[in-house]
Specification:
Length: 470
C-alpha cells in the first residue's frame, strides 16, 4: 500500500499501515458497491475499518480495462492506447471516436475529425514537419511518458496534444509576440464538439478569444503586455458511462471585471469558468483575489474552486467515520506588509452539472466550513495540503451520487471582510493559493479519502469478525 494521501490519513488516525491491505482496484461500477472507475478500496485486517481513495480521473473504461496513456505509431499512423475514446493522427488530420455512451446524450461511436491550421494575419504558417514528435516525457507531469505529441512552428508556436484518462487536451503555445492577428482554424467535421475559447498567459491573465465556427481568433493587441508563452486550448472530456450523476469535474470559477466594489465582487454572478487545465498557478483557485491596479478600494477578480468527487462506490450500509480532502499545492502569493493574507477552507458547492463548470457556478459555493482553514503561510507548494473533515463535511459525502465541494477564502470572501489599504499605486493586495487539478494527473490530482465501517457479516474474514467483536 503506497498511496501517499492514504498513508498520511492512516498516520493522522494512528492506524498501523502494516495491517492495511489493498482490496479493490479501479473497476466498472456495474460490478456493484466498492467498485468504481474513480476509486480504489482498502481495509484494515486488524479492526475491520475500510478506506476509499477517490480522485477525479476515470482510470478504467466502460468495460473495466485500464486506460493506457500513450501514443503509438503504426504504419505511419499515430493512435492512442486504450482509453474511453480512440484518437488517430494521420497526415495532420485528427479523428476522435467515443467508445461508450456519454452524459448529455452522446452515444458510443460518435466522432469528429479536424485538420487544424495556424494563420497569422490570414496567412497559414505550416509546422516544421507534418509528422508530430512523440515526447518521451509529459512536460505537464513527469510521471507520464509517450502521452504527448508535438508539432513545432518555427520560433513562433508549439502545438501539443496530450492524453490522460478520459481527457483529450490540445494546447497551442505562442512563444513570442506575433504582432499580428492569430487564428487557429480547426476545420472540424462530425458531431463531437471541441471546447474552444481559452487563452491565458504565463502568469494567469486571460486573453480575449473570439470563436467563429470552429476557429479561435486573437487580435494582435491582446498579446500586448502579456507574459509568454500564451496558452490557447481546445479540449474534450470523456466519461466511462452515461451517468452524469456519478461523474467528476474540477476547476475554477470566477468573477472578473474592472474596478469592482467589494460588494459587487462577492455577490455578482460569475463571468467565467475553466475545467480543462492542469492548474498550479496562483489564479488556479483554490482562492485568489486580484486588486484593481490604479484604482483605490476597487477589485478586478475573485476566484473560487469547485471539485466534484464521485464517492458513490461507498456501500449503502457504510458508516462513515472520517474523511480528508487533499489538494496538491500550487503557487501562492503572500502580499507585502500583510495587506491581504489569504486562507482557504472547503465548503459545499452546487454546480449546475457534474461534467462541466459554467460561470453561474461561482455563486453556488456556500459558507459552512467542512474543515479547518489553512493559511497562506502554511500552504505547502510541494506536497498535498490535507483538510480533515468535520462532522458536517463527513455527512455531506454521498453514497449514491457525486459530491461537490468548493474552495473559498475563509476570512475575506466567506467572512465578507474587505482587505484594507488597497492603494491605487500597485496591486499589493493581489494574493491567492493555487492548486493542481485532476488534469495534472498522477501525483497531483485532488483526492478524497473516506474511512468507514460495515456491519459484521458472515462473508467477512474470521480475523476481521474477531477484531470487530473485541
Amino acid at each position: 500500500m503506497t498511496d501517499p494521501v492514504l498513508l498520511r490519513e492512516l498516520a493522522r488516525l494512528r492506524i498501523d499501515k502494516d495491517y492495511v491491505e489493498f482490496t479493490q482496484d479501479y473497476a466498472r461500477r456495474s460490478l456493484g458497491k466498492e467498485h468504481s472507475p474513480y476509486a480504489k478500496f482498502y481495509r484494515d485486517v486488524a479492526t475491520g475499518q475500510r478506506f476509499m481513495v477517490a480522485s477525479g480521473l476515470p482510470m478504467v473504461d466502460a468495460y473495466g480495462s485500464r486506460n493506457e496513456l500513450e501514443w503509438l505509431e503504426k504504419a505511419g499512423v499515430i493512435e492512442n492506447g486504450n482509453n474511453i475514446f480512440h484518437a488517430t493522427v494521420s497526415t495532420g488530420t485528427i479523428r476522435l471516436v467515443v467508445l461508450s455512451d456519454q452524459p448529455l446524450g452522446i452515444k458510443k461511436g460518435t466522432e469528429c475529425s479536424y485538420h487544424a491550421q495556424l494563420l497569422v494575419n490570414g496567412s497559414e504558417v505550416l509546422p516544421d514537419s507534418p509528422v508530430p514528435l512523440i515526447l518521451a516525457t509529459d512536460p505537464t507531469n513527469l510521471n507520464y511518458h509517450d502521452n504527448v505529441i508535438l508539432w513545432q512552428y518555427g520560433t513562433l508556436c508549439r502545438r501539443r496534444v496530450r492524453l490522460i484518462p478520459g481527457r483529450y487536451r490540445e494546447r497551442w503555445f505562442i512563444d513570442r509576440h506575433p504582432h499580428a492577428r492569430v487564428e487557429i482554424r480547426h476545420n472540424k467535421t462530425g458531431a463531437l464538439k471541441l471546447k474552444l475559447g481559452y487563452a491565458e498567459d504565463a502568469i494567469g491573465r486571460f486573453l480575449k478569444v473570439r470563436v467563429v465556427g470552429n476557429s479561435e481568433i486573437i487580435e494582435s493587441s491582446e498579446f500586448d503586455g502579456k507574459v509568454f508563452p500564451i496558452e490557447i486550448g481546445a479540449s474534450m472530456t470523456f466519461f466511462p458511462d452515461a451517468h452524469d450523476e456519478v461523474s467528476s469535474v474540477d476547476g475554477r470559477v470566477y468573477h472578473d471585471a474592472a474596478a469592482q466594489t467589494w460588494l459587487n465582487l462577492r455577490v455578482s454572478v460569475g463571468t467565467g469558468a475553466l475545467d480543462a487545465d492542469a492548474g498550479g498557478g496562483v489564479s488556479h483557485a483554490g482562492c485568489y483575489l486580484n486588486a484593481s491596479g490604479g484604482t483605490a478600494d476597487r477589485w478586478t477578480g475573485l476566484y473560487r474552486g469547485i471539485f466534484v468527487v464521485d464517492a458513490s462506490g461507498l456501500p449503502d450500509g457504510a458508516n462513515k467515520t472520517a474523511a480528508v480532502f487533499s489538494l496538491s499545492g500550487g503557487t501562492k502569493t503572500d502580499p507585502p506588509s500583510g495587506k491581504y493574507n489569504p486562507d482557504m477552507n472547503i465548503y459545499q458547492s452546487a454546480p449546475a452539472s457534474n461534467v462541466a463548470l459554467v460561470p453561474g457556478d461561482f455563486n453556488s459555493i456556500l459558507a459552512v466550513p467542512y474543515s479547518t482553514t489553512i493559511g497562506v503561510v502554511a500552504w505547502d507548494q510541494l506536497d498535498y495540503n490535507d483538510y480533515p473533515f468535520n462532522g458536517v463535511g463527513i455527512a455531506a459525502i454521498s453514497k449514491t451520487v457525486a459530491t461537490p465541494f468548493g474552495t473559498r477564502d475563509a476570512t475575506h470572501d466567506v467572512g465578507d471582510v474587505e482587505p484594507g489599504d488597497n492603494t491605487p499605486a500597485s496591486n499589493d493586495n493581489d494574493g491567492g493559493m493555487g492548486v493542481w487539478y485532476a488534469d495534472k494527473g498522477a501525483g497531483w490530482k485532488p483526492k478524497l479519502v473516506v474511512v468507514y465501517t460495515l456491519a459484521v457479516t458472515d462473508n467477512m474474514p474470521s480475523k476481521m469478525i474477531a477484531a470487530k467483536l473485541i
